Amino acid sequence: MKIAALVSGGVDSSVVVHLLKEQGYEPDIFYIRIGMEDEEGYISCPAEEDIEITQWIARHYGCRFEVVDLHREYWDRVVSYTIESVRRGLTPNPDVMCNRLIKFGAFDDRCGQGYDRIATGHYARTEVVEGTTFMATAKDPVKDQTDFLSQLDYSQIEKLMFPIGGMMKSEVRAIASQAGLPSADRKDSQGICFLGKINYNDFIRRYLGEREGDIVELESGRVLGRHKGYWFHTIGQRKGLYLGGGPWFVVKKDIENNVLYVSQGYSPDAAHGREMTLAGFRLLSGKWRGADGRLADSMPDGVTDVKFKIRHTPEFHQGHLEKAGEEGVVHLTSDSPIQGIAAGQYATVYDNEARLVVATGMIVGGIEN
To answer: Which of 20, 106, 206, 251 is most exposed, with the fewest beta carbons within 10 Å of its own?
Structure first.
């Protein structure tokens, strides 16, 4: 079996190579370079240290190594998506789109066609049920990354290997330490790669500029202050408003008039919601897994119980799905209130055991409407 291992220089992907070699495989190692330098010299995600460690791993295990430059693809597909989503008042998820369009999209188009499997250091698993491959949650609930992988299509899922998905993070670090890997004590990467060490607002300001508008208390209509553009703020945000007498939360955005609506208190009713509309709703593996464990070709009619997430947390929400009557649109209702439901984010839908990822959709309606 020919395996391409995507290695970033971090501890997780380094251990992937170690495990593959232990299992008798001879993976080829690829480092995907996506840090950007645009026409104005804006540089992010310096890769020198990452590449140096990845080269060490390749030499140590006798693997072929290649750096794949996907700068332009990343800019055209992910950075542009992020800027345009923010411009429209949405809350984008660049990490989700990077996985779909770059790591398992552009890479496969460029290099992956000659390989049977692509192995990565993501905390996830795959599981075959009645001949259908599903993405499944990792053993470590804190590190589980199935929500970041929820926009993959079935052809991508079928090809993936997640060698560390059945391990706790502590086990992975222990293996790296025992094997003497240089990445054993490296901190986990944080944040959006294309930003590197650049402040998020500075990045947005570079491409969208500033435009002052009012900050208004939702309940009273009272103007509390000014902001420099709705694109700097997202639903559920608390920090960066610079208002006295808080805490204040962003609960609504008027895009046309550039107005932010806020509500006061740690748990204001206005900042929480139970209902949301999902568009672009699809079954990741083309099959629905019902409460009885059987597979179906579509989501059943009526109200269906599900587990779901709308952001990267260890906890699942219990909720109910119902078709909206329009193709690819569903209504999702949570049993408990959720803070910060933001249009543009993705909801990841799991089976009732919170084990298999069955569906995904983008939030297009929630408490901000």
So the answer is: 206
